[in-house]
Amino acid sequence: MSTFEARPLHLHTLESLLADLVSGRSVQTGQQERFSLPNERSRSALEWYRKRGHVGWTANVSARDGEDLVDAIHTQPPELPELPARPANSNSRRLRLKKLEAHRFAGLHKFGVPTTSPDNYVHEFTRAVTLLEGRNGSGKTSLLNAIIWALTGEMLRPQRAPEPAEEFECWVSASEGEAEPTAHKIASVTPMPNAQQYRPTEPWVHADTWVELTFVDESGLEHPIIRRS
Q1: Where are the domains of the chain?
Q2: Of 73, 172, 216, 220, which is least surrounded by CB within 10 A?
């Protein structure tokens, strides 16, 4: 007797995904997470859509279609055979980063003042491979961090694996007449403020950091902008 092992979502074809869900088999959606349809009625409804095919999914649903769907929901869902998984290297689609635009991002910008931010940093990529050269502290890692953060919410750290870009307490030295420095929450992707230009008056530092990425596919088609703020 063969035992079923849930396959990761990215290894499914559309056909194999539908076959498993209609048959009551689960799909691996995370390291420990599994997804399956909760009951036979939902499986029968999906089977109705599966048999309609791609064209039927985007067509208008008529009154007759609605009656057919209700009838289908009350039928026993079939058990479809497992279909071959998608090979891990089968996806030939390629996206190329065309443009990066960053606003008040640590390492690429100075903070300035809340009401006047520095000019946005814009980098346009014109080749499939880009080499970054520069002295220590010139912003090479910061450029990569802007891309990584926009895609994953994480940042690179020296000699460490990428980690979430979390908030921390920024301590501002006491000015004349103040006895103690003050602490203010700030995001690790936001530049540190210069106390000579801007002294926070709230328990947090003004943050309006964002990064936008523009990708094109192998045909040159530009895809919608990816933005994290």
Answers
A1: 9-73, 95-228
A2: 220
